[in-house]
């Protein structure tokens, strides 16, 4: 089994080499991010984390949702992704943190919501890492696991088969979330998007 630092290196190499082109590869995803953020039901003044924020594509709609009085934090492990976020001016919409979401430098229950796009498949310890996201969210706060492409379409794009043990399959994800402090409340897996919503268990 790989150690944590090997996982970090692997993620940083994989996304580091893709960072500069990330937004150019997916230029039409903006509306899907805006729609997914809307599903969080954020209010003015809320505090929200974009976990694995990458180049910060979700930060503008998150800022719009919480307004100037809200708090938007983008956390990512890959320096090059955060640098691309700064180049795109997205640090105007949220505070950027270079950190592993497995150990967030945030107090417990301080947030109203977490948005995580394209993150879960990359987590070395999904149960433990989702539990860490639950730690920083208040009871009844919300989690959105999003991808601007469905599982089957993504597997086809990557030239692989979907297997029954896929982490994001509904029958796997629901118990995974339940064991990590989250109650899954909605699940959509269609060609144009994957979105699972959960609320922080009391
Ligand atoms: C598929 S990209 C998605 C980026 C962005 N959320 C988006 O939708 O464009 C996954 C991101 O998660 C980050 N990541 C992976 N594992 C992480 C971890 N343990 N902690 C923080 N960020 C992580 C990667 O560096 C990468 O930027």
Please explain how this structure is put together.
The chain has 202 residues and is of the alpha/beta class. The protein is 34% helix and 25% strand. Strands 3-2-1-4-5-7-6 form a 7-stranded mixed β-sheet, with helices on both faces. A hairpin with a 2-residue loop joins strand 6 and strand 7. It is globular, with a radius of gyration of 16 Å. The N and C termini lie far apart (34 Å). The mean pLDDT is 94. Bound molecules: S-adenosylmethionine. S-adenosylmethionine binds next to helix 1 and strand 2.
What value does the average pLDDT take?
94
Instruction: Please tally the helical runs, counting DSSP H or I stretches of 4 or more residues.
Output: 8
- The neighbouring-strand order within the major sheet is 3-2-1-4-5-7-6
* Secondary-structure class: alpha/beta
Query: What would you report as the Rg, rounded to the nearest angstrom?
Result: 16 Å
Poorly predicted runs are none
- What is the number of strand segments? 7
Fraction of residues in helices? 25-40%
Sum up the structure in keywords:
34% helix; alpha/beta; binds S-adenosylmethionine; globular; single chain; 202 residues; 7 strands; 8 helices; seven-stranded mixed β-sheet
Write the topology of this structure:
Elements: H1 4-16, H2 22-25, H3 30-38, E1 47-51, H4 59-66, E2 71-76, H5 79-87, E3 95-98, E4 111-117, H6 126-135, E5 137-147, H7 151-157, H8 170-178, E6 182-190, E7 193-200
Parallel strand pairs: 1-2, 1-4, 2-3, 4-5
Antiparallel strand pairs: 5-7, 6-7
The structure holds S-adenosylmethionine.
């Amino acid at each position: 089994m790989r150690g944590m630092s090997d996982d970090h290196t692997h993620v940083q190499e994989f996304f580091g080499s893709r960072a500069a082109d990330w937004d150019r590869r997916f230029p039409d995803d903006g509306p899907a991010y805006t729609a997914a953020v809307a599903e969080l039901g954020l209010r003015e003044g809320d505090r929200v984390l974009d976990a694995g924020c990458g180049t910060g594509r979700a930060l503008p709609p998150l800022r719009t949702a919480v307004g100037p009085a809200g708090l938007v934090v983008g956390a990512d492990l890959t320096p090059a992704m955060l640098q691309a976020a700064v180049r795109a001016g997205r640090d105007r919409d949220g505070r950027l943190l270079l950190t592993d979401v497995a150990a967030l430098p945030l107090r417990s229950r301080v947030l109203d919501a977490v948005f995580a796009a394209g993150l879960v498949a990359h987590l070395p310890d999904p149960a433990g890492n989702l539990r860490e996201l639950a730690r920083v969210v208040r009871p009844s706060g919300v989690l959105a696991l999003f991808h601007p492409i469905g599982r089957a379409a993504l597997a086809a794009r990557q030239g692989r088969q979907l297997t029954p043990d896929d982490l994001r399959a509904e029958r796997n994800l629901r118990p995974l979330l339940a064991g990590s402090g989250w109650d899954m409340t909605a699940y959509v897996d269609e060609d144009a998007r994957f979105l699972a919503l959960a609320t922080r268990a009391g």
